[in-house]
Each structure stands twice: as C-alpha cells, then as structure tokens.
Amino acid sequence: MEPVVEAAPAKVNLALHVTGRRADGYHELDTLVAFADIGDELSAVPAATDRLTIDGPFAEGLPNGPGNLVLRAVSAFRARWPDAIATGLTLKLTKILPVAAGLGGGSADAAAALRLLAGMARHPIPPAELAALAVELGADVPMCLASRPARVRGIGERIEPLSGFPTAHLVLANPLVPVLTADVFRRLQARDNPGLPDLPEPLARPAQLGIYLSETRNDLEAAAVELVPAIGALTRALGKAPGCVLARMSGSGASVFGLFGSSAQAHQAAHDLRAQWPGYWVAAAPLVG
Fold first, then answer.
1. What does pLDDT average to over the chain?
2. CATH 3.40.630.30 describes domain 4-160
3. Is 240 tagged catalytic?
C-alpha cells in the first residue's frame, strides 16, 4: 500500500519571555509560536513490528532506537489505544531540519507521529485525549500537535490558538552548531521577566505583527549568543536585509529567523545569506496560517 505521510513543520518562537522558574526546575514561559511551511516528514506502512529508519540531510547521528521521540510517541499511543492499529509499522523519518536547532524538530516529529497514528487508527481518537498524551512526551509536543499560530504559557501546556494570523514569510538560518537548551538556561541572568504584551485583535498584517514583536524579546538570545557568537552575526545580517521586518533567534537557538512581508524579499535574503555563509543551513518559507 502507499505510505501514509505526515509533515512535521518547523516551530518558530517569534517571541519568548522567561517569566519564572518552578520548584521542580522547569521554567515558565510566555511565547508566541508560529509554524513554517518547511520541516521534517514522517511516513508509515504496515509491517510485522515497529521499526524506524531515518534519512535526509540531517539523519547522521540521530538515533533510531527506543529513545527517539517518534518511537516514544508510537509506544505511548499503542499503550493508550492498544487495539487502534492492528499491525506493526515501518516508519521513515526524513530529517530536513537541523538537530538541536531551536525549531522544535524532535517535538514536531513526535507530534507528526501522533497525528499519523490517529489518522490510521481503526476507531476515532478523541483530540483532547491525544493532546493529553502529547503533554506526556514533552513540553513542546502539544503545540506542535496543533502546528498553528498560538500564544503558549506555562511550560507549554497552556495553548491559546490565534483566530487569525497575517500572511508572512520567513528566512530561517542556522550555523550548524547544536545548542543544548540546558546550557542556555544555565547562563540566564534573569528568570522572572514580564510576560508578553496583549496581542492585537485582529492580527491581520505583517507590519502589524512586526510592530507587536518589536515590543517583545527572546530572553534566551543573549545567553545563546555567548555560547555561539554566529547567532548574533546571523541575526544582524538578516536584520539588514531589504524588507526584513524583524530578525531574532528562535527558541534556544542556534536558528534565527527574519520576518518578511513578501516571498520575493525572503528568497532574495536567503540567497544572499547562502552566498555569505555557504556552509550554513538557510531556507525561505511562508508561515502556516
């Protein structure tokens, strides 16, 4: 049979405020997330047992054993709904996004696995129960399960989907230096910052989004730049590109994004970055509304 295919779009933190630290060590966040029309791809066909293979430009070094988030998602799904899928699955993950890049790659892959399995199930899977399962897999998995623009608070469990979002385009760039989130958080100077300002309603135009974002921050950026100075250089270069409304780091890095109002401007900026840094990963893609 033809493989069942599910996309795993890149998650982009357009703004990320660290607002506190809980007694269990987790940090409270207030973040505006959106998703780009580029990402990993997961496919599945029936098989005797569950098995994962990985290909794509960033497959090297990525484990395909039980610790992989895709297989963890499959295992958790089967434990919750043991009769939903009668066969094993051969899964193939095509890894398009850099690893440890601040784009939610592993979480997006796990979320794609949950959507894929729910679509293949022999009986309906309640969305609320699927979302609850996503929480058990990681803080970013629930927002990636929806893969729609949202304001997210707490440790990732309080998700407020946005009713509308402007048509906008991104340039994503990464110096191909992995950044561990824990290393960035250890370098934070302040962990009790103010949350995001209220979002305008409706949020309809790229310029309006840019004005709003100019009043926000990524509180992890300074710490990440200390670890990887190339993040700062990329951000400055993107910010100077014609048509760039805002340039900022996503998540805990090392990926940065530039926000553009038109596809042509984004693709030109991506072309110029590739010429300047031919060894970096650079992509242009629209935001998913």
1. 96
2. no
3. no
